[in-house]
Amino acid sequence: MSEKWELNAVKQYLIEKDIKPSVQRLAVMTYLLEHRTHPTVDEIYSELQDKIPTLSKTTIYNTLKLFVEKKAILALTIDEKMVRFDGYRQRHAHLFCHSCGKVVDVPLEYDVELPQTEETKGFADVETQVYHKGYCKECLETKNLYIK
Amino acid sequence: MSEKWELNAVKQYLIEKDIKPSVQRLAVMTYLLEHRTHPTVDEIYSELQDKIPTLSKTTIYNTLKLFVEKKAILALTIDEKMVRFDGYRQRHAHLFCHSCGKVVDVPLEYDVELPQTEETKGFADVETQVYHKGYCKECLETKNLYIK
DNA sequence: ATCAAATTTGTAATGATTACAATTTTGAAA
DNA sequence: TTTCAAAATTGTAATCATTACAAATTTGAT
């Protein structure tokens, strides 16, 4: 569940992505690399508060925004309530449970390409995300969900 | 751009989906069927205010929520700021411009299936959405975007 | 015509995100 | 090491999409 990352490897990764490392940035990136849970801003903030007592939630927002701009992580809009973040860089899709909000990685066998049509011509910097949305086994078993 | 729908056909469609037709519901569904622009709540509300002077934005929210529950329309979470709605029922993917927020339909040649793995086993009622995100030609040509 | 259920409406609350200004840290140059 | 401007961080206040909720209206069966 929780791969371990060397601080220097994380630092190197940030530098590769043209991001100046700082205590806060290293903590956020390390958290994302070690936790494949697609956390929200609040989850990251709560988890890192202990390690960095002066941490501000605005810093988490700033940092994640920077990481996304620099393409070091992915912002997932799978949950309509809030953005989830993903530091995993291999091609994969995501599965979302409408009931508990859990997001899990699922394999994606091939690239889903943007077709070349009149509409899509000239689009640049396209990144593709595949979302599967439904209800997970645990929620179906433990909650009384009315799924038609 | 704007296919025309008979009121009775829309009414029939709502009934098929187990939705009791009302003036408001017919107006919203007709709007979604005739406009493939993936409008937001505000856009739908603005457009229908003239036709229905007493219309409330809460009604738009209620109506869209009902339509989604009954699977008459799709809620797109492609834009992190707000939900977009789609009344088009054929299989297709979506293309999103980060700069202007435009969402356009693009062909999707095959079903993107949820693979059967330990993690995905037991998931129910899964619906798949494919999002392509980038910058559209118009924005690239008319705005000074720094795309690295 | 009556009346309960369903629907619509308006207002107030919620909560994620952003704006912004102040404070702190960093790192190069003297 | 000291200085100082740029960058990064922080806290607070504002924004704005969405939801909660209660009152008003409409619907449809009797």
Give structural notes.
The first copy, chain A, has a three-stranded mixed sheet with strand order 4-3-5. The first copy, chain A, has a two-stranded antiparallel ribbon with strand order 1-2. The radius of gyration of chain A is 17 Å and the shape is globular. Chain A is built from five helices and five strands. Helices cover 34% and strands 18% of the residues of chain A. Chain A is an alpha+beta fold. At the A-B interface, strand 3, strand 4 and strand 5 of A face strand 3, strand 4 and strand 5 of B.
Distance between the termini of chain A: 33 Å
| Average predicted confidence as pLDDT of chain A | 95
Spatial shape of chain A: globular
The oligomerization state is homodimer
In a few lines, what is going on in this structure?
Chain A is 34% helix and 18% strand. By secondary structure, the first copy, chain A, is an alpha+beta fold.
Question: Which SSEs are present, and which pair or pack?
Answer:
Two copies of one chain form a homodimer.
Chain A: H1 7-16, H2 23-34, H3 41-49, H4 57-69, E1 74-76, E2 84-86, E3 93-97, E4 103-106, E5 124-135, H5 137-142
Parallel strand pairs in A: 3-5
Antiparallel strand pairs in A: 1-2, 3-4
Helix pairs in contact in A: 1-2, 3-4
Chain A binds a DNA duplex (30 and 30 nucleotides) through helix 4.
